[in-house]
From TrEMBL:
<keyword id="KW-1133">Transmembrane helix</keyword>
<keyword id="KW-0813">Transport</keyword>
<keyword id="KW-0472">Membrane</keyword>
<dbReference type="GO" id="GO:0015031">
    <property type="term" value="P:protein transport"/>
</dbReference>
<keyword id="KW-0812">Transmembrane</keyword>
<keyword id="KW-1003">Cell membrane</keyword>
<keyword id="KW-0653">Protein transport</keyword>
<keyword id="KW-0811">Translocation</keyword>
<dbReference type="InterPro" id="IPR003849">
    <property type="entry name" value="Preprotein_translocase_YajC"/>
</dbReference>
<protein>
    <submittedName>
        <fullName>Preprotein translocase subunit YajC</fullName>
    </submittedName>
</protein>
<comment type="similarity">
    <text>Belongs to the YajC family.</text>
</comment>
<dbReference type="Pfam" id="PF02699">
    <property type="entry name" value="YajC"/>
</dbReference>
<dbReference type="GO" id="GO:0005886">
    <property type="term" value="C:plasma membrane"/>
</dbReference>
């Protein structure tokens, strides 16, 4: 009698945690805006140029690519200033390496 009750409780907990993760992902996707740096599920990094309910247009080194909104894995940086700082730091490292 105890075994079926435990099984039902475990199944209920799995559904609950899955719904919770799904809601967190939906909330994260709804907060993405133009200028955010994101990563797609394929591992492609880009900056959001346009976004609507169904699709996202990414700027990847001057090339504009259109993806379904669900193809976004996560947000890397939330402002263009943050990505500019990262780019400047990588350029400084490159320049330092070239000088040496």
């Amino acid at each position: 009698m105890l075994f079926p009750v435990l099984m039902l409780a475990m199944i209920g907990f799995m559904f609950y945690s899955q719904r919770k993760q799904q809601k967190q992902r939906q909330d994260a996707l709804s907060q993405i805006k133009k200028g955010d740096e994101i990563v797609t599920i394929g591992g492609l990094f880009g900056i959001v140029d346009e976004i609507d309910e169904k699709k996202v247009v990414l700027d990847v080194d001057g090339v504009y690519l259109t993806f379904e909104r669900g193809a976004i894995r996560n947000r890397v940086a939330s402002t263009p200033a943050a990505s500019a700082i990262v780019e400047e730091a990588s350029q400084e490292k490159t320049e330092t390496a070239i000088e040496e």
